[in-house]
Structure formats: C-alpha cells, structure tokens
Amino acid sequence: MSLSKQLNTVAELASAAQELLREGDTRIAQMALNKTQAVVFDIQTGSEMKRKKAAKEVLMPPGMLPQIPDTRALISGIIARAPLALTDECSPEKGKPVEMRTEADGYQIKYVGCAVTEYDITVFKGLLHLAKHVPVGTLVTVSRYQLWQHLGNATKPGPRAAERLDKALDWLSTITLSITGDGLRLLGIRLFASTIKVKDGKFTYAVTPEARELFAQGGWGNGPHCNAKSLVVRKLVDLAYSGMRGAFNYTTEGLATLCRYEGPGFKFRDKLRKATAELAEYGVRLVEREKNQWDLVRTDSKKSA
Fold it and tell me: Domain extents for the chain?
C-alpha cells in the first residue's frame, strides 16, 4: 500500500472511530482505533526501514568502503570478533607463516599468511581509512608519515618505528582469508591487490573489492583510533566497537582465546584488570562481574566521541 493510501486509511479510520464514540458504540470504536494504530505503526516501520536503508547506502556507496568521519577508525566485525592476531607475549611468532582455522559469530574462517599482532591490525585499519575516498581496487600512494600520523602519533617515526611499520605492511600483504557462513562465501580473498610497495618513504597499495565484502556482508563498526601499547587493550576496543552499542559478556577463557593468549589464566585476569583504566579512555568499560566473568560495555569519553 502506498503512503498516500495509508494516510487516507488512517484519516478514515480515525473519523469512523470518532463517529462511533459519539454514537456510544465504544467496542467498535476501540477496534477502529486499534486498526488506526496498526496502520500508523506500519507507516512508521516502513519509514524507519527506508531511512536505515538510505543511511546504509550513503555510508557505504557501491564499490567503496564505508564512509566514516576522519576522527574514527573503521572496524570489520568479522576480524574484530575472531582470534586472528597475536598478543604481546607471542612476539617470537610475529611474521612467521601460519595457517589457522577458527570461528566467529557463526562464520567459519581460514587464515593463511604471516602471523600478525593487534598493532598490525591497527595498521590495516589505517590503510583502509586512507583509501576510503576512492573506489576499491584503485591504487593509493601515501607517505609513511601520513600513516604514522593517522595512527595517532604526533612526531615522525624513528628508525625502529619505521622498520616495524614496514614489516607490518609486508606481513599484511601476505594474508588471504576464506570466510563462509550466514550467506557469506569469500574464498581465498586477499586484503590488498598485491604486495604493498615501499619506496622513498612512500607506499602504494590497493584494497581489493573482495576485502570490501568483509564490511558489506560481515558487518562493521567504527571506533576511536586506538594506539595503546597493550595489544589486549587494542583488541578489546575493537571488540566493543565492532557492532551494536551495548554490553558484551565474555569469560576469561573466551577473551584469552580472542586475544590468542596461551599463558596461565590468572596472569591474563591480571592483564584484564590492569587494562580497565586505559580502556576507559577509549570509551570502554570492562567489568568483572564475578571470577572469570566479564562485561565489556561501551560508554562515552573524549577519545570515543
């Protein structure tokens, strides 16, 4: 039914209800009022669905990545909620070839490539952000300093920082993902079209059209740029902003799995407790409800605004 017909129906039903009330037939009048409310609800629901669809199309135009403010970081729901990145304790494994199968939100994920940390995932988000203004597949050239600034650093990267950044770019170039489930079927996709080329402090890359599907079908969110030294803090910030606003419930073991932490449980609990103050700076509250039970809640903060 068109909107004009729905509005005419509302007007007719409301008029009939008033007439029935004047005649004292309250039962039939109430039925007319109920029908009026049902039609109004349909109008509101339809308008809300159209608004959400239009907003989604504006935020994610065809052939492009989601368009978010420059003050925000783009987060893939699938990547945030899967145990793909290493924590601080696994530094000897960084850059080594790995093949891993895991699961997140009902999606079956196969990861092949160099082992990466949450720092490398942060670099990945920075690369996406700097390429969001052009269609996927388009070559983008940016300076190392541009990316370094985008990651929340005010000064130029020193030799060690530059080397770490270049390694992250090399490792990210190796990754392929296969993701199936919930109508999504991406097999052997690369995040970037080819090896990220670095020359004279600048690098050139292109985000693949397949990588865009991580956001088009797998869900996405946007959060504050997180440059925390703790890779656990980086992971929890991404988790908190990877979907709808609200609370996420985890066990200590579940969070350890997502962070690919393989040490003793009591040490990881201590790590989580120490992370609470820094998480608050990014608009995330981690609450220990009872032993081994945690609530991860998004709040408001200057960094998260």
Answer: 3-59, 72-298
